[in-house]
Amino acid sequence: MKYLFGFILCCLVAGLSATEQYRFRVYLKDKGDGGFRIDQPEKFLSRQAIERRHRQNVAITPTDFPISPAYIEKLASTGVRPVVQSKWFATVVVESADSMVIERLQKLSIVDSVQWVWKGELKQPAEDSDKEQLAPSDQPLKDPYGYAYEQIRMLNGVKLHKSGFRGAGMRVAVIDAGFRHVNRMKVFDSLQLLGTYNVVFPGKSVFGDDDHGTKVLSCLAANLPGVMVGTAPEASYLLLKSEDSHSEYPIEEDYWTAAVEYADSVGVDVISSSLGYFEFDAQELSYRQTDLNGQTALISRAAKMVAERGILLFCSAGNEGNSDWEKITFPADAEQVCTVGAIDKKKKKSVFSSTGLTADGRIKPDVVALGTGSCVTGPDGNIQYASGTSFATPILAGLGVCLWQALPWLDSQSILNLLRRYSSQYKHPDGTLGYGIPDVYKAYKKGRKHAGKR
User: Fold this and answer.
1) Domain-by-domain residue ranges, the chain?
2) pLDDT given at position 131
3) Among 58, 133, 193, 275, which has the minimal tally of Cβ within 10 Å of its Cβ?
4) Quick check: pTM over 0.90?
5) What is the C-alpha separation between 288 and 325, in angstroms, rounded?
6) CA atoms of 56 and 336, how far apart (whole Å)
7) 319 DSSP assignment
8) What is the pLDDT of residues 199-217, one digit of tens each?
9) Nearest 5°: CA angle at 367, between 364 and 373?
10) Domain 21-120 belongs to what topology?
11) Residues lower than pLDDT 50 in the chain
């Protein structure tokens, strides 16, 4: 398989320690002069990223410039180890066993402020050395979609596929907690892999740890007729691990931001993310519902910046519908992104699906898809049924990919608007199902008809 290393690595290799470490998010006053220029975007963006922006009239700005290496070296001179950085926010997360290093950092002339975002011991991720192919034992069905037929039919995706749109030529990033065994599963034999990147453990495989992303990816990219076919089986995929499954701290937002910046720089069209946050292991760092305004959480601001760069971002609403929190999680509150809630096979809201509205009164979730008893492929290669907005999101995202393939002259926000416009309760949206269940084939027909009138 081909692995893509990209232009600007968002993470710097961090050593593992057996003692408790602290990590701090350092906000810089600026990014320094790294010698980058707007008229030379090829120095920090891939050809595909530049072309995507040109197609949608998205400007390249100094926000896209990487942080000067000299600034990273200056931070390291205080005895800290740089871990992960964000060029969009001019932040660098650094690590030290000394919790008092914050005082030295704050004295640097380049530093604006410092925030504690993690403490603990990094656990070495599991490695998968087995090479045996994992083939499903499930009995093939007559229908080509196999056990996934219902979740695609519900969105009228079968008709869109039959019209010739299965994701070919589209570049999709999937951001998740890990993709265990994807590299040796039969349902992914035809997977067009752009590359992988482990943000949490740079240099480590994404295929040997958590299997949440395996199930998510199967909703999109599985391609074993009679057993399971995903919603965009012919698209090309970039697999990014940004979730540290062993703890929950605000650094998850930094990892996720680094992942989307990486995805942007290598030129993806669509991102599917089934991760969300609101409560952390250190309660004092947790969010409040009043923060659900798209402007407060770092991860939500990053999601908005993804959309502003012409990428269509699908994110899960969250599974807090029957918990004390109840509401959507971050970054599901972000503007200009497609937040996906979950329904059951009777087209009723899944009890766990998080609800809106946002704190500032916007409709969220935007739309819904099957999330109760979704067909997925597990890490053993067999069909499973799983529940969560985590699976509703890629089911819809894949058909969003196909819709954009069918209507390539549209920009990302126009595709999002089509999905909303041709959903079951467009005229009466609410904070439970948003605009409702999209009809992607109708959206395609209407989009094509409109194009003919231009």
Assistant:
1) 21-120, 149-452
2) 83
3) 133
4) yes
5) 9
6) 15
7) S
8) 999 999 999 989 999 999 9
9) 115
10) Alpha-Beta Plaits (3.30.70)
11) 1-17
